[in-house]
Amino acid sequence: MSLLLSRSTQETHFHFGSWGLCTSTLQGGPQITSRVVLLHLCKTKRPEVIASRNQVRIIVFIASSFRVKKSKVKKKKKKRKKEDNNNLLKLRSKLDSRVASQLFVEHKHKLTYCEVPKVGCSNWKRIIFILQAGLEVEASEIEHDHIHQTSLIKRLAAYPPPVQEEFLNNYTKVMFTRHPLERLVSAYRDKLLHSEPYYSTTVANEIRAMFRKNKNSSEKVSFQEFVSFIIAKPMNTLDIHWKPMFLLCDPCNIHYDILGKYETLGLDSEHVLKAIGAPESLQYPSLKRYGSEKRTYGDITLEYLRQLSSEQIEKIKKLYEMDFLLFNYTMKYEDYFSLKS
């Protein structure tokens, strides 16, 4: 059973690796006071309330492939479970090397963490570094550049496939997600508006060459140009900072034990640290690389979305469609999108 935290909406979501009954308690986790949401990732289509007991709403996300007649459910249940397990084993054995490169392992506390850029990953690397090194320091003391260059933090890809499988089976697997459109805007602000050598030169020059008549123009890349650049590329070739989250972490093959959200990052991180038995003194930091700037939340995101054409909006929605479905995000900018469509 996996825990998906979402305290901002006063919900506690449970994600089960397979269909089954939902219990009302989880050892080491928060109390269930409002909703229990049963998710079957990668087959999500629409929510359907199936029960309501003791003020706990149980919601199942029904997969179209599992819509069978009620009279056949009991007969097919055991067979379906066996087939699902066999399929998962086959998929797991083919773990993409790009996905393995996104996963970091911390052995002392048996943690596997999937790096999703623009979802607090630098601070999580600080945490992993401290845990692996056995340091007694605050995470805020670890410099940004050091944490992305150290060899102490190991990627899953550094190990042979049998060892990767062992870690995935026995370590606590953690992934954090963020509203796809906020993450997109955050990536643009962080990578294209600042003077990072690779993004502000190499990537920016490629974008200028694609969309400007004056190829030698040095004016900063606009958000419109940035989005046009992204939607013109094959999804699998996108930079990790704006590649869809489901491609980075492959939740269809890897059943994460804890799915946290950026919207409740501090509280969810606190639960992860408790779940893996980290020192009580260790806390997730609230560091931001460009501390003088406002974080990319709804108002800033909407400001940038207003710069896009209707066609760009539809293509961006399509690009991140699976992220919206799999991680239970809604288009909270629907008023704006409805006006543009």
From TrEMBL:
One of its GO terms (cellular component) is Golgi membrane. GO terms for biological process: carbohydrate biosynthetic process; proteoglycan biosynthetic process. The keyword Lyase does not apply. It is found in: Golgi apparatus membrane. Its EC number is 2.8.2.-. It is an enzyme of class 2 (transferase). Its main location: Golgi. It is a single-pass type II membrane protein. Belongs to the sulfotransferase 2 family. This is Carbohydrate sulfotransferase.
